Structure formats: C-alpha cells, structure tokens
Amino acid sequence: MATMINPTETSVIIEGASWATYECLLEDFGDSRTTRMTYDQGTLEIMTPSYQHERLKSLLTTLFEAMATGLDLDFENAGSTTFKREEKARGFEPDACFYVQHVAAVRGKQRLDLTTDPPPDLVIGVDITHPSLGKLPIYAAVGVIEVWRCDGYQVHMHRLIDGQYEPAETSAILTGVTKADVNRLLDLSEEMTRAAWIRHIQAWAQSLE
Questions:
Q1: How far apart are CA 196 and CA 42, in angstroms?
Q2: Nearest CA-CA partner of 142 in 166, 113, 119
Q3: Angle subtended at Cα 62 by Cα 125 and Cα 112, rounded to the nearest 5 degrees
Q4: What tens digit of pLDDT does each residue of 106-146 get?
Q5: Residue limits of the Putative restriction endonuclease domain (predicted)?
Q6: 19 by DSSP, 3-state: which?
Q7: How many other CB atoms are there within 10 angstroms of residue 196's CB atom?
Q8: How far from the centroid of its chain's Cα atoms is residue 25's Cα?
C-alpha cells in the first residue's frame, strides 16, 4: 500500500506508488492542472508551484531564450512537457526544458514520446521547497545533457558525464556561457526593466561570438 510521507505546503511525496497510479493521475488531472508530477521507481512527488517558484522559472526561461537568441542558436522551448519511460519506471515534468542540439528532431511535432524522440538537451529546475524528490538521477536515466538547478539563491550547472551528473562551470549547450554569467545576469533582473534586461542579455551573448 502506498504511504504518504513528508507533506509540505506545496509538495507531497508518496512512497510505494505504482506506475499505473502515476499514469492514472496524469490522465485524471489532464493538461489543465497546475500541479507537476515526478515519478522515480515507486516514489511519486506531486508539487504545486508557489509564486516564487514560478517567478524564478519565468526569469530563467527568459534568460535562456535571450542568450540563445543572442548566440543565434535555434531552439525549441518544450516547457513543462510530461516525459516518461515506463521501462525505466521514471517520469518527470520539468519547470522548463529546451531542445538545441536535437531541435531538428522535434521541430513541428505535436507530441513527444521518449521511446522514439530524444530527451530535451537542457532542463531547468527550481528547487526551493523541501522535501523534494531528487530529480538528477531521473534526468540522467533518460539522457538529458545539462541541468540548471536553482535553489532560490543561485543557479548550479550539472553536465551529464558517463551517465552521471558532474558540477559544471560552463554550459555544454550554450558555448561560452558560464555558471557565473547565468547568476550575474539573473541578478540583473532585479535592477532593470524586463525589456532592457532582455536587450542587455542578447547584446552580451552577441559579444561572445
């Protein structure tokens, strides 16, 4: 029997949940829900994002898109798409994710299926609520190249190497961009209007070429 443990204001973790239960919840809630679900070999997290969480997600999404645009990179924003692999007993809905290196493989598709489509190249995760299910092993299991994880204070980069994530100082997806750059530019969002901030990021990224 599934047992619920460690409830918090915005996150509930359930141990002993079956894959069928996970699939049923996804279907019952549908695409209109505000919750996000993560499944890892019998452990299910159901999370309702807070305003702080969504604000950081929005800022990081805008930051990535502005940098990629300044670098003249093609990309696809896959948002919080549900990705799942039944044979690995894992599923996740990232705060945001992008295709860059594999953008041609998903362009124009209306649905994505990890059994036939590549995983996103980069996942952005905001993790400011505890307890929280550790998601790096899930991303590694499906082959996400890079993860940006924000703890509410700063962004940490993780790069997939030999099936495991290692801390990284530079991005494997955005050439020339460092963790320090991401955190510095994110801090600037508190000092500038949004339009001016986006223009500044794009101009900065263009200067890297």
A1: 46
A2: 119
A3: 60
A4: 999 999 999 999 999 999 999 886 545 689 999 999 999 99
A5: 19-170
A6: helix
A7: 11
A8: 21
In our burial notation (b when 16+ CB lie closer than 10 A, e otherwise), range 115-153 reads eeebbbbbbbbbbebeebbebbebbbbbebbbbbbbeee
Tokens of 91: 């599923």
Q: 190-196: long-range contacts (C-beta < 8 A, 24 or more apart)?
A: 194/62
Domains of the chain, CATH where assigned:
50-206 (3.90.1570.10)
The tokens for 182 are 């991401």
Q: Tell me how long the chain is.
A: 209
CA proximity to 81, closest of 67, 91, 90, 70: 91
Residue 122, token pair as written in the block = 């980069």
Of all helices (H) and strands (E), which one includes residue 159?
Answer: strand 155-161
**pLDDT (tens digit, 9 = 90+) per residue, 7-66?**
344 788 999 999 999 999 999 887 766 788 999 999 999 988 888 889 999 999 999 999
Q: In Å, what is the CA distance from 55 to each residue of 69, 95, 145, 189, 190?
A: 21, 11, 24, 11, 12
Q: Which residues partner with 61 through β-bridges?
A: none
3-state secondary structure (DSSP) of residue 179: helix
CA 68 to chain centre: 16
